[in-house]
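Researcher: Please generate the 3D structure of the following complex. Treat every line as part of one assembly.
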Amino acid sequence: MTNKKIKAAVNGYGIIGKRVADAIKLQPDMELVGVADVESDYRVKAAVVLGLPIYASLPEKSNEMKDAGIPIAGNLDDLLKQIDIIVDCTPKGIGAKNLELYKKAGVKVIYQGDEKHSLTGHSFVAQANYETALGLDATRVVSCNTTSTVRTLTALRNADLLKKARGVLIRRATDPWESDHSGIMNTVVPEPHIPSHQGPDAQTVVPELDVITMAVKASHTQTHNHYWVVELTHDASRDEVLAAFNAASRIAFIRMSDGIVALNSTIELMKDLGRPRGDMWEVALWEDVLTVNGNEVYYTYQVYNEAIVVPESIDAICALIGTVKDGSESIRITDEVIGMRKEFLYE
Amino acid sequence: MTNKKIKAAVNGYGIIGKRVADAIKLQPDMELVGVADVESDYRVKAAVVLGLPIYASLPEKSNEMKDAGIPIAGNLDDLLKQIDIIVDCTPKGIGAKNLELYKKAGVKVIYQGDEKHSLTGHSFVAQANYETALGLDATRVVSCNTTSTVRTLTALRNADLLKKARGVLIRRATDPWESDHSGIMNTVVPEPHIPSHQGPDAQTVVPELDVITMAVKASHTQTHNHYWVVELTHDASRDEVLAAFNAASRIAFIRMSDGIVALNSTIELMKDLGRPRGDMWEVALWEDVLTVNGNEVYYTYQVYNEAIVVPESIDAICALIGTVKDGSESIRITDEVIGMRKEFLYE
Amino acid sequence: MTNKKIKAAVNGYGIIGKRVADAIKLQPDMELVGVADVESDYRVKAAVVLGLPIYASLPEKSNEMKDAGIPIAGNLDDLLKQIDIIVDCTPKGIGAKNLELYKKAGVKVIYQGDEKHSLTGHSFVAQANYETALGLDATRVVSCNTTSTVRTLTALRNADLLKKARGVLIRRATDPWESDHSGIMNTVVPEPHIPSHQGPDAQTVVPELDVITMAVKASHTQTHNHYWVVELTHDASRDEVLAAFNAASRIAFIRMSDGIVALNSTIELMKDLGRPRGDMWEVALWEDVLTVNGNEVYYTYQVYNEAIVVPESIDAICALIGTVKDGSESIRITDEVIGMRKEFLYE
Amino acid sequence: MTNKKIKAAVNGYGIIGKRVADAIKLQPDMELVGVADVESDYRVKAAVVLGLPIYASLPEKSNEMKDAGIPIAGNLDDLLKQIDIIVDCTPKGIGAKNLELYKKAGVKVIYQGDEKHSLTGHSFVAQANYETALGLDATRVVSCNTTSTVRTLTALRNADLLKKARGVLIRRATDPWESDHSGIMNTVVPEPHIPSHQGPDAQTVVPELDVITMAVKASHTQTHNHYWVVELTHDASRDEVLAAFNAASRIAFIRMSDGIVALNSTIELMKDLGRPRGDMWEVALWEDVLTVNGNEVYYTYQVYNEAIVVPESIDAICALIGTVKDGSESIRITDEVIGMRKEFLYE
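Model: Done. Output below.
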């Protein structure tokens, strides 16, 4: 690590963008130069209250934002001139259009999972392939569901346990702040195709995975719930499987017997632990539900979709800039700074 | 079939009981002698509006019911004297206590899936084991989830396709009329144990099934959604698998491309088709989502938990009384009378 | 009433349209010549199963519908040639565009509440202004919320009790079949303006009403709930107010003490009563919650938004065609045919 | 204010208790000696992670808690010996039983709104009656709904605007962490009696209020929504009414036009502002929805039920101990410490 701080910014101050901005501010070796957006609503006004320098992502939005009382520090162009790297958290499809702009400005970029793998040619999960991202100009942090899939299946694979994995992903329907579009009510909406995209997406990070996923939206707004049937390389004990998960980073156990009986239990727990925005960055795996049956293991875990990719985004910055060469070292530093928990979430 | 009608009654006029009562009334060879209950609320008052003879399940409730304006035809004892068979749809655990009463009165009994297999020693799904119930004094129609599991896995087994099946059952949280207890809100509640009870329960009907189930409650009130990963005996074509389901009774296809995109789509469809109470007795399987991959098949279907066991209960009456010796003949008659659909739900 | 049946049709086979079609079929003096729509999904396919003649609302949709296997009897033009009157239940704004078409074909038309009052110059609630619609070429049946407001406030007004009324309307968020758009989740969405449009809309039917409404969407899909604070012309007794509601048609009492404790209680009750599609056409008013305090009365009732305007639409047909001159006679016939309940919903 | 810190504790580490504990820790003139509870689940384990001294509320629970790995500092008796005042946040009815215990130990006590007014003979809302609580041994901070009612109606009363107020309270159904009991699904549940208890409860604080409330539970878990029709003492301008609210503490404006369009908007906003647990202590009143019509004003606001009484509880401690004699001074200090916002929530 050099003495000079990495100059970073966020484009798109939404669900992911605002969390990445928070996390960058916490890192001792990084500086958040600014955030760019196009809106003039309470979200951007809250960023003003927090004292963040605001830029207009699109020059044509600049006046509208000023008129709404938002002090604009400049346009995206002005922001790009001051930074080494940008985390693009704009809505699906917008990010791809920005790539030329970033390239021309000589700024490295981290995309999120909504963009295609082909945009950057590299997809990133710190625990699985940090080193392959070192020095690249661009990478893509895969989506929340894929990140959790790669974290957990990599844990089993590192312990030579994984043969093949079949998962059912029960997704939240829309974000908790949404009140107008995309909400579903009193129903379950299966995805129209099997397999769902998360399996192939995990293979963009670890091509060797034999993984098939099926996805469905349920009538709740916070966090995903995964169920897995995994065929192991051999008959294994329950302890062996638990040890494999325990050895991995960013997976933490929870227990039904401690009152963590549903997705909303950990949401309360995160508030109780004083987490910023109530975020859970860990994959929370029910230790006392996991069952081994010969060469099969069945388990379920929870994915806090709004936050799980935030530490990965920080590691991706480190990898692209190259300040830390070793993935486990980057993970260790990131996790310590934000307060990630190990082993159990609340013990 | 003899000329004499089967004299039947229902004990417990709740979600299942009232539907079984409706179905008995429709059968040309059955007579609904009465329904017994303990409540005095709108549900029993609606039965009065419909003209059903009401009996008090417990003598001590008789006066309370009379005071509420419900014309009581007698107590359960009086009802038992007039009938050949009773369908016990009382809440979990109550039914077991009634068994001695039924035996003493020389009345045959059909229990529902809330009671244990050991109570009757026989569990029933018409498509799988009708003939083994012929002439018995008692059987148990298994629960909605188990019924659908047996129907679908038996279909694959009859086509020599089934090796092993692993299912994730996304259950509705509570009944649509409930407004006070057992509701869950904006969450998903995983069952605390894997495997869930439905797999072993299916084996009470077809012991040879290699089936593991995992269950979870989601935040909706109507119908269950199942996801299955089934290992086949050999690499099969999609058409082969579809043909196996099509050959079975009480499984009907639906299609995403026809706008059946979620659990609430078929709920609207049932109303559109003029079904009583909006009931769907068929397992509704998404034909255009089912995917075959070598020797694995992945599929999802919907189970209308309030209604799916109703035709099974009618068949169970036929089997115990012995009026129809052949299961497929009983199914044919029952299905024709209530208007079960074949192949596609709406074509 | 003449011997010749009224030849009627429905344009737009959606939530309201399909119910109006059902109701027309039941009327002895009406004939449903056909229904027109533009979709090819399960809803139209269900109409085919029911044997309804289907027409293409737009000629350019005809081939698409045929390709989907829907037997098209013709286009809207062909339908208009055969009928006396059409009930336009197309989505908001579409109906207005159809008016010229209807006029040119010499066909009378009933619009629904989504269209503006100015389109027809007449808005209709049978209990309030049937006679003013006699012989008109077009009228508009006001929306579900407005219909219930007019029914209840007219009841108080007819008893010389009404001075002014202030209502809070807790609306369902979207229709039960919707799974994609307009759903809200785990929230309440206040309308951005007070007063909401229902107050002025009620005045298009009864201009003398002193009524202000405020509206809010809650996180449920079925039926609206209204709360009213009404200032009476004088201090009145509870019995006096109840008698006023009882004297009116299409208002029926329910009671908390009978287990009708929430909006979903009556939804179950309607199924129990065997109502088609589980419909409730009555305003269901909680008799044991209504409270009188000096010259103020407070009460709450439920509005089944999918069905409440159906009997009004039938009456509107009678009024425009002029077969029945007297509103209360039309109401009596319509109500008897569909099975509307008086006084109590379930006694 | 003396140099000696007020020694305070919390009994019942639930939704309110844990927030009061957090707030006490922030106050420079208070010391949180410990928290008492009876559970051994994740909530208490999280308090251990935070480093709070834990006491067993009931001695017989002590061993169970120790066995679960919770380091118990003693029983409630031990805690009472060390403190000046306790905030009792135990479930409804439990607190009343504790009163003798507190008296015997010479410890002052703050109860919450679940307990009856008669228990303490004094009910508290800082803005309305701080001074009357000075030096008392016990008071009761009224419930969230009542607190908001008193805050807003007192604001109008202080500006000589209030004549009478009629409110409809749309309540959240259960707490966000609940997954088992009391949840309602896809419905609205009206309270069985009008008026609801909140009106009379507000009169325990300000007896002069002419206020009637009606309450209903809707299908969401976070925050209440109130609608009010208020008759003013005279025809007033909109600015006059807004000025009255603005002059009051703990009421802050929000605007639809800033994207605050629903209850879940502010929940997101609180996270964006970095609020602990995402709490909103202010009554959030929609400035651009409020409408004045002659001598009537109509408005709607949001009540964050889990947090709104927290600052009142802190003020109640100050009043009972008597460290601050003036209510507005206590409010000023409390609000500054926790970061309450004035005028607008996000500007």
